[in-house]
Amino acid sequence: MTNQPATHGGAGVESLAEVLRRFAEERDWQQFHTPKNLAMALSGEVGELLAELQWLTPDESARVMADPVAGARVRAEIGDVMIYLVRLADVLGIDLVQAATDKLADSARRYPVEQARGSAAKAVDA
Ligand SMILES: [Mg+2]
């Protein structure tokens, strides 16, 4: 962990979305940032993240950040995933944090603590 400040001009998804919007505008890349293209790019980056972990044992994957080289690659792919997820949500006009908060509330309803604690069973209505 470092204590370096965020370099995107402030904390939070909204400011990152603004930085990404400006980045695309400066390069005239909005034309390529269709929801379809961004969803495909997001999927590709998730694949790159998976590629960093796929042959590790569960224990190795849990310790991956202790390896500076592998950890840096995982960190970079997480960053790529975040970039495309935030950009896709921005282009679609979705409040990303609100969407996630809504989904979490739904999961809390479907998986009450007293029934779900310690269980990986899927909810009946899932
Ligand atoms: Mg990548």
TrEMBL record:
InterPro entries reported for this sequence: dCTP_Pyrophosphatase, DCTPP
Highest taxon above the source species: Bacteria
Name of the protein in its database record: Nucleotide pyrophosphohydrolase
